[in-house]
Amino acid sequence: MLPIISPSKLFSVLGALALATAVHAEDPVTPPIPGVAAGGVVIELIKDGFKGTEGPIGYSDGSLLFTETQANKILRIAPDNSVSTFLENSNGANGLAINASGEIIAVQTLKPQVGIVYPFDKQKTFVENFEGTPFQRPNDVVLDKSGGIFFTDSGTRPTKEIPNPPASHPGVFYITPTGQLKRLANDIERPNGIQLSKDEKVLYVANTLGEHILAYDIGADGSLTNKRNFAKLDGWKNEDNVWSSGADGLAIDDVDRLYVASNSGVEVFTDKGEALGVIPLPKKPQNLAFAGADKKTLYAVGRGAAYKIPLLAQGFKGRAK
Q1: Count of structural domains, the chain
Q2: Which of 44, 58, 164, 292 is most buried, by the most CB atoms less than 10 A from its CB?
Q3: What mean pLDDT value characterizes the chain?
Q4: Are 165 and 157 in contact (CB under 8 A)?
Q5: Residues contacting 203, CB < 8 A, separation 6+
Q6: For 51-78, b where at least 16 C-beta lie within 10 A, e where not — what string?
Q7: Cβ pair 262, 246 in contact under 8 A
């Protein structure tokens, strides 16, 4: 015999189910990706309305730093999600890196250059041009264990404000530990995010206008060889008669999986370039980084918003990003 449920109790149960369904429908959640993400974990919006969101990097105190490019600031997200200004007047800092001395190195866009922006008494410009040609849009940066600096310059591109910009000079560059500047590649349409494998034998570069993440083998002197299509992106689509993957920031975890901010969200690949899944977000991510004491939280920033994604995977602890 089935138990009899009173109308009031039935309505209460149905109401609770409806509320749970509504909450679930409103909150983005992670899809199940083996070893990476448990299904159904809520993706938390920390804040929306920032003026440009780029350059996230895990900081030594467990917080996350990122750049508010249009506001000319570096911001800090504490573990409790509170947001504060870490550095004013960042010279339009975009991508960030942290060296062995704890100094913050930034690729900078107001006066295009690469150098130390924090602490104040250590501020220094490393490079601001290549063979006399000024940089145009320094975009992202990653440091190797020897202190060498890999960075991208995405060049100029037409906008509504500047429909006919100066000739573009996009490229991938390397500053050796002794300060010598080398251009490693100048055949990528729009180089964007840049990242190293754990053993620093492979360099990944995101080509925003391309369908694939690119990979190169790295020589002992920092030179690049064996350019190849590493991973095919799900975000490849046509918008305004322009094909683009939207490929932007890159991050790796402790087993060398690669995480890519793209038009589809956060795309995840094995160290062999095999697609594992996509974590969709309400707004297109522009860059991402693992942070927190255990580096099991992936932060994604983009289109003025910042998100916090609890994962099963752990970020690589061998460098800040």
Answers
A1: 1
A2: 58
A3: 91
A4: yes
A5: 150, 172, 194, 195, 196, 197, 215, 216, 218, 224
A6: ebbbbbbbbeeebbbbbbbeebbbbbbe
A7: yes
Tracing tokens 């009031």 back to the chain, one arrives at 8
CATH assignment at residue 83:
2.120.10.30
Q: Map tokens 């300060």 to a residue.
A: 179
Residue 287 near residue 281 (C-beta atoms within 8 A): no
Tokens representing 93? 């800092």
| pLDDT tens, position by position, 197-230 | 999 999 999 999 999 999 999 998 889 999 999 9
Q: Can you give the C-alpha Rg of the chain in angstroms?
A: 21
Contact 289, 56 (CB under 8 A): yes
Please check whether residue 88 is in contact with residue 104, taking contact to mean a CB–CB distance below 8 angstroms. no
Residue 212 lies in a domain: yes
Measure the N-to-C terminal CA separation of the chain; round to a whole number of Å.
61
Structure tokens at 120: 């104040």
Find residue 182's DSSP bridge partners: 174
* Strand stretches in 3-111, DSSP E: 44-47, 54-58, 64-68, 73-77, 83-88, 93-98, 104-108
Residue 9 confidence (pLDDT) above 80:
no
Domain that residue 225 falls in: 28-310
239, β-bridge pairs? 242
Task: Find the helix or strand (DSSP H, E) in which 25 lies.
Answer: helix 7-26
Task: Look at residue 116 and tell me if it is in a domain.
Answer: yes
